[in-house]
Amino acid sequence: MKPSALTTHVLDTAAGIPAAGVAVELWRMEDATLVTRATTNADGRTDAPLMDAASFRPGRYELRFAVGDYFRARGQAAGFLDVVALNVGLEAGRGHYHVPLLCSPWSYSTYRGS
């Protein structure tokens, strides 16, 4: 089986830059447990995986991105979005899960990256 892990990356598509300073929370949905909190760095990534191979547990998770705070800190109106919540199902042995968030004050998209 391939070891599994979870990482993320946030891009500000309105400005065309990595989104530095976005607060990210990872919640395990089965028991409503906060797994970790992190903040994106200058490259729009967290400094460490949200779950590395050693701490990985399969299940249903919610990633919460505080994009409204990010846009307000940049002097922009937060627009339509405040906290973007993405619900994902993670399975053991499926390899690295990478969940990018591409956002503007008005919209977002995501996909399973590599």
| Biggest sheet overview | 4 strands, mixed
Order of helices and strands: EEEEEHEEE
User: Rg to the nearest angstrom?
Assistant: 14 Å
The CATH topology corresponds to: Immunoglobulin-like
Q: Specify the number of helices.
A: 1
Rounded mean pLDDT score: 95
Q: Structural class, from helix and strand content?
A: mainly beta
Number of domains: 1
Structural features:
single chain, 114 residues, mainly beta, Immunoglobulin-like, 4-stranded mixed β-sheet, 4-stranded antiparallel β-sheet, elongated, purine metabolism
Describe this protein's structure.
The protein is mainly beta. It has a single domain, classed as Transthyretin/hydroxyisourate hydrolase domain (Immunoglobulin-like, Sandwich). It contains 1 helix and 8 strands; from the N terminus they run βββββαβββ. The protein has one helix at 67-73; strands spanning 2-12, 17-18, 23-28, 33-39, 59-66, 83-90, 94-103, 108-110. The chain is elongated, with a radius of gyration of 14 Å. The relative contact order is 0.28. The model has no long low-confidence stretch (mean pLDDT 95). GO terms for molecular function: hydroxyisourate hydrolase activity. Homotetramer. Residues 6-113 form the Transthyretin/hydroxyisourate hydrolase domain.
